[in-house]
């Protein structure tokens, strides 16, 4: 059973199957909307997982890149007069460049120093987005122009459910390819032992930055998609709590498990919606989940389940 | 000149709070290598609990003491329920646990108390004292004076009492401390309790000036951490100097440059320290043996 | 051809001179052993040669080129690799993947092709795996190629590290206590492997405590004590050197040994 899952196409195929099933199975627009948000967040979570779960680094400010992607998509059409889709691409480039510039010095740090530095980065981004109201509309946010393709405005759940689902499947496929490639092995190696990785010829600093850039682009893409989907964006998408939510998705689902990131995103987004009575207690639950999982179930849901099944099979 | 003094005093006042938060960080960090992100919540509990208990008719001084007790209880629970079980985990896991705790406590506070701003009456009235053209709040002096008293008491506790010395021993070398019979788990718990008390006191002292709310903890923790980093992680003197420095930088930055980005100063300070001077002003560089 | 030359190398940690003015020359194809009592600075010396530590003084030359202070990954490109005394295995990867990491410098490193899993990358992965399996076969671990490294016993992990180091196609291989914690049978296997590696043309530098192993296979032995060179020479000369005996056994022990041989 576990063998099937080690095939590189297994997880993307599984995700595709789930996207299809939900797309045709979920009746109301409300649920499709929630699912769209899950696909978008899962993409960001996969990006963060590449950095945290595989490369073993930590980022408590990754929502900063989400915000960069989202606001580039929102602001660039106004400032440069380009189409929203081109603005999205611009946002990805901006995220990559910022990740390169910030990543080099920041990733020299380790442990809680790295954690707090990334935290500071995320908060600074959120602050800039909130303060530069001339450009960004300030704390109240701004509207985002919808992209137009072949004369058709791309808006609404009907379009964005499938777009975000397809992008998620693609993102998962790319991520798994990366994990099983020389770059992926380099990242996983430096996670387990930096000195041994160096001695095997790996330029550890370079690969940490590569992981940072790739994860930043994933997260920025998710941000851009959310902006285009909602037609509106506020600075708290770059905020501290959003960064923590992404961390919870990764930790909950399982660090080092791509499918786990989808599960984590689903739980974190769909559950509060389903249990609307508990929406009030969302943050309380978030804090609680974070503590419980980091103390007792550090492996996360999916790897723990897989291990359980594997043991049962023996 | 008057303006300068004004900024200096408000900077020192808020800096004193940062210093006390940083001191709490340092105490726990030294005893256990844990960076306690929930440190800011102790300050919040100090202020909010005092307000809540006082509003039930309890006289203010008693309410304040009760609030400190509550904070200490929370600190001990945090240690017992969240930190102890994860003993031996790596630094990042521990800091994420304390972040989880901070979020949990903050949310709990919004239910136990409410989401409004609250204040406490200033201890000796609110008539500003004019000094060199600057108007200084009497409460500012309480904060600065109170802060100094706390630091002195802490110093006496750590260097003159047996319990305090046990904390210092555990901080210096946990294994050696265990080997001479010190119950290190108890000592770490104690450091949480003392940190909570310091934080709560700081909260009570500063609430008359800055007000309090269920969510003031997060930003305070971050700035307190910035202060501890600037001063040198693990150095109590560094924590105090770092805190005052960040407070002053904020006040002067907000006053002379831009008040929009006042909060950014602490974060820029963190990044600057981490890149250019990772050991901070008073920290010791550690040599890692491979 | 001189494979490795160390000149007056030294480093101190907070005032303690861990390595002080050590010099030696190793010819290509030799098995050169560094021995000394615990704390003599052997692993520190390895760390200095392999770029893990930056020397305070002195120079390191690899095939007559100055490589002092080069980062470990740059040294690998020049043909220097090493294993670790305290096992730096990639526990979360499989046995085969551990060795494949050693192929890193021989693999194409473009990130975009990796993301897209282009046919060239698929071919690359297959080739690296093939090479890894070949090396695992050589050290006798091929049967466990797809097991998680964390599940292997200690002795097997020591051999895995050697395979990983060999995957980098080194010309000079530093082995840090490869037989540590191994039982006599495992030690014999390690000895066999080291000889085989040396026979294939690789210069082997060995840090080892197992004296019998050292005496049997070394071409030359360098003795360290308190970070300083105590003696250097061939096996027999070192074994009977009174200074060396004194360093290991202490003055009293040296007298006893002399009396025992007397």
Concise summary:
With 290 residues, chain B is mainly alpha-helical.
Unreliable parts of chain B: none
What pair of chains forms the biggest interface? A-B, 38 and 41 residues
Task: List SSEs of chain B in N-to-C order.
Answer: HHHHEEHHHHHHH
Write down the domain tally of chain A. Answer: 1
Strand content of chain B: under 5%
What is the end-to-end distance of chain B?
54 Å
From the helix content, strand content and strand pairing of chain B, which structural class follows?
A: mainly alpha
The counted number of beta strands of chain A is: 4
Structural class of chain A: mainly alpha
Helix content of chain B: over 70%
Rg on CA atoms of chain A, Å: 19 Å
**What best-fitting shape of chain B do the alpha-carbon axes yield?**
globular
- Rounded to an integer in angstroms, the radius of gyration calculated over CA atoms of chain B is 19 Å
Number-wise, the strands of chain B total 2
Dominant shape of chain A: globular
Percent helix range of chain A: over 70%
Describe what you observe in this structure:
The complex is a heterotrimer of chains A (314), B (290) and C (262). By secondary structure, chain A is mainly alpha-helical. Chain A has one domain (2-239). Chain A contains 15 helices and 4 strands. Chain A has helices at residues 2-5, 10-25, 29-54, 63-80, 84-106, 111-131, 133-136, 156-179, 182-192, 194-199, 204-230, 240-253, 258-274, 282-296, 301-313; strands at 142-143, 148-149, 152-153, 232-233. In chain A, a hairpin with a 2-residue loop joins strand 2 and strand 3. In chain A, helix 3 (29-54) runs antiparallel to helix 11 (204-230), helix 4 crosses helix 5 (84-106) and helix 4 (63-80) packs parallel to helix 6. Chain B has a two-stranded antiparallel sheet with strand order 1-2. Chain B is globular. Chain B is mainly α and 290 residues long. The mean pLDDT of chain B is 86. Chain C contains 10 helices and 10 strands. Chain C is globular. In chain C, helix 3 packs across helix 5 and helix 3 packs parallel to helix 6 (154-167). Chain C has helices spanning 42-49, 72-77, 95-101, 111-116, 119-139, 154-167, 184-199, 211-217, 235-239, 242-261, and strands at residues 2-13, 16-27, 31-35, 57-62, 65-66, 80-82, 172-176, 203-207, 220-225, 228-233. Chain A binds chain C through residues 8, 174, 177-178, 180-186, 188-189, 191-193, 195-204, 210, 214, 256, and chain C through 50-52, 71-73, 76-77, 81-82, 84, 88-93, 97, 100-105, 107-109, 111, 113-117, 121, 124-125, 128, 164-165, 167-168.
């Amino acid at each position: 059973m576990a063998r099937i899952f080690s095939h590189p196409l297994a997880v993307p195929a599984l995700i595709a199957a789930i996207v299809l099933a939900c797309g045709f199975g979920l009746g109301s627009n409300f649920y499709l909307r929630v699912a769209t948000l899950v696909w978008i967040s899962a993409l960001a979570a996969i990006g963060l997982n590449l950095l945290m779960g595989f490369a073993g680094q930590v980022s408590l400010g990754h929502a900063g890149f989400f915000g960069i992607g989202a606001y580039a998509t929102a602001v660039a059409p106004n400032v440069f007069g380009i189409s929203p889709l081109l603005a999205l691409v611009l946002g990805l480039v901006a995220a990559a460049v910022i990740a390169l510039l910030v990543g080099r010095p920041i990733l020299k740090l380790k442990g809680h120093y790295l954690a707090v530095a990334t935290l500071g980065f995320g908060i600074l981004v959120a602050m800039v987005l909130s303060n530069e109201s001339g450009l960004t509309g300030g704390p109240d946010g701004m509207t985002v122009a919808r992209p137009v393709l072949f004369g058709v405005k791309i808006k609404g759940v009907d379009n964005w459910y499938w777009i975000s689902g397809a992008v998620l499947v693609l993102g998962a496929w790319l991520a798994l390819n990366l994990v099983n490639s020389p770059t992926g092995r380099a990242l996983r190696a430096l996670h387990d032992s930096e000195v041994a990785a160096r001695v095997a010829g790996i330029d550890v600093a370079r690969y940490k930055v590569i992981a940072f850039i790739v994860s930043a682009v994933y997260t920025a893409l998710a941000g851009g998609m959310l902006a285009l989907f909602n037609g509106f964006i506020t600075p708290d998408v770059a905020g501290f709590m959003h960064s923590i939510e992404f961390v919870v998705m990764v930790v909950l689902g399982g660090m080092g498990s791509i499918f786990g990131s989808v599960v984590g995103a689903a739980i974190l987004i769909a559950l509060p919606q389903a249990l609307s009575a508990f929406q009030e207690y969302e943050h309380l639950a978030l804090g609680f989940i974070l503590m419980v999982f980091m103390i007792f179930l550090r492996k996360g849901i999916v790897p723990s389940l897989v291990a359980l099944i594997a043991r049962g099979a023996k | 000149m008057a303006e300068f003094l004004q900024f200096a005093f408000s900077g020192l006042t808020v800096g004193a709070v940062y210093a006390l938060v940083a001191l709490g960080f340092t105490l726990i960090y030294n005893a256990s290598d844990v960076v306690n992100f929930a440190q800011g919540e102790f300050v919040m509990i100090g202020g909010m609990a005092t307000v809540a208990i006082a509003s039930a008719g309890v006289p203010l001084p008693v309410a304040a003491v009760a609030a400190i007790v509550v904070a200490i209880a929370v600190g001990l629970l945090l240690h017992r329920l969240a930190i102890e079980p994860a003993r031996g985990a790596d630094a990042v896991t521990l800091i994420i646990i304390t972040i989880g705790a901070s979020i949990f406590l903050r949310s709990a506070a919004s239910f136990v108390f409410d989401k409004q701003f609250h204040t406490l009456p200033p201890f000796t009235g609110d008539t500003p004292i004019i000094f060199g053209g600057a108007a200084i709040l009497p409460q500012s002096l309480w904060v600065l004076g109170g802060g100094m008293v706390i630091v002195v008491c802490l110093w006496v506790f750590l260097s003159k009492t047996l319990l305090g010395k046990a904390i210092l021993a555990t901080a210096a070398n946990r294994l050696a401390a265990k080997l001479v019979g010190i119950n290190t788990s108890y000592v770490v718990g104690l450091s949480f309790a003392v940190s909570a008390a310091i934080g709560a006191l700081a909260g009570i002292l500063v609430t008359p000036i800055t007000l309090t709310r269920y969510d003031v903890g997060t930003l305070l923790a971050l700035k307190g951490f910035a202060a501890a980093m600037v001063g040198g992680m693990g150095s109590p003197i560094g924590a105090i100097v770092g805190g005052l420095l960040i407070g002053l930088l904020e006040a002067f930055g907000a006053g002379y440059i831009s008040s929009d980005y006042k909060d950014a100063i602490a974060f820029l300070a963190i990044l600057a320290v981490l890149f250019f001077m990772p050991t901070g002003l008073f920290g010791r560089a550690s040599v890692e043996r491979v | 051809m001189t494979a490795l030359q160390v000149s007056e190398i030294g480093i101190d940690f907070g005032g303690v001179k861990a390595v002080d003015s050590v010099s030696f020359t190793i010819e290509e194809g030799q098995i050169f052993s560094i021995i000394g009592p615990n704390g003599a600075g052997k692993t520190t010396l390895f760390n200095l040669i392999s770029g893990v530590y930056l020397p305070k003084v002195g120079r390191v030359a690899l095939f007559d080129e100055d490589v002092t202070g080069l980062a470990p990954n740059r040294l690998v490109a020049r043909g220097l690799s090493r294993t670790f005394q305290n096992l730096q295995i990639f526990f979360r990867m499989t046995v085969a993947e551990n060795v494949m990491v050693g192929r890193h410098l021989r693999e194409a490193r473009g990130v975009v092709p990796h993301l897209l899993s282009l046919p060239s990358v698929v071919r690359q992965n297959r080739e690296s795996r093939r090479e890894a399996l070949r090396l695992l076969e050589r050290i006798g671990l091929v049967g466990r190629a797809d097991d998680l490294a964390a599940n292997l016993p200690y002795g097997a992990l020591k051999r895995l590290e050697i395979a990983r180091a060999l995957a980098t196609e080194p010309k000079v291989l530093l082995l840090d206590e490869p037989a540590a914690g191994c039982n006599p049978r495992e030690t014999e296997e390690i000895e066999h492997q080291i000889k085989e590696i040396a026979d294939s043309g690789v210069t082997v530098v060995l840090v080892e405590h197992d004296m019998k192993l050292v005496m049997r296979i070394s071409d030359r032995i360098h003795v360290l004590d308190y970070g300083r060179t105590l003696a250097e020479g061939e096996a027999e000369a070192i074994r009977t050197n009174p200074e060396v005996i004194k360093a290991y056994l202490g003055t009293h022990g040296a007298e006893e040994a002399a009396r025992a041989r007397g």
